[in-house]
């Protein structure tokens, strides 16, 4: 005769089924508490993996701290620029130092030029508000965007019209070009112009898009910098 018990849920279990269930639970607990003994090779691999994990965590923490310091330094630098410190590089310095390092992806602690990916999708007035540099000589930006490739929904009603092109030299060697664009809105030429600097020869296409350096000026207030 099979003895059964009734649970409150209404499901009947035999005594043998209850014993099997209890035995299974005990085996599972015993198996869970048993730690596999590692061989020397396995222990060494586990130790090395632990060291790698520790190094990875340290690197990530150092990067986070570096980013925090970089942001703090940039804020301090922008504050100094807004209180009289001038940023007045020559064309050669802009191309041969700043633009060259940017495209080589070197880290520069004090990089007073911020990157705006959709530069030409912003109205010139908006750009002047985005830059923290002293406006005495202009506003400087890095960008990967191109003139008049404007996305729908931006705050730009005008367009940048190409005006002229000049070469940039370093020790009698051509190292770059600067293209001057004038801002037109409602068929009227406005006071803004954009000087876009490019490396010569152009960087080889790689993992990252080519970067350009742009200087936004107001014609009546700009100081033309000669190399």
Describe the structure.
InterPro entries: NAC-dom, NAC_dom_sf. Residues 81-216 form the NAC domain. This is NAC domain-containing protein. Residues 1-28 are annotated as: Disordered. Pfam families: NAM. The protein has 227 residues and is of the alpha+beta class. It has two domains: 40-85; 91-218, Metal Binding Protein, Guanine Nucleotide Exchange Factor, Chain A (Beta Complex), CATH 2.170.150.80. Helix content is 36%, strand content 25%. It is built from four helices and eight strands. The protein has helices at residues 15-33, 40-81, 91-104, 124-130; strands at 4-6, 12-14, 114-115, 139-143, 159-170, 173-185, 188-199, 212-218. The strands form two sheets. A six-stranded mixed beta sheet has the order 3-4-8-7-6-5. A two-stranded antiparallel sheet has the order 1-2. The longest helix has 42 residues, at 40-81. It is elongated and about 90 Å long. The protein starts with a strand and ends in a 9-residue tail after the last strand. The relative contact order is 0.12. Residues 1-9 and 221-227 have low confidence and may be disordered.
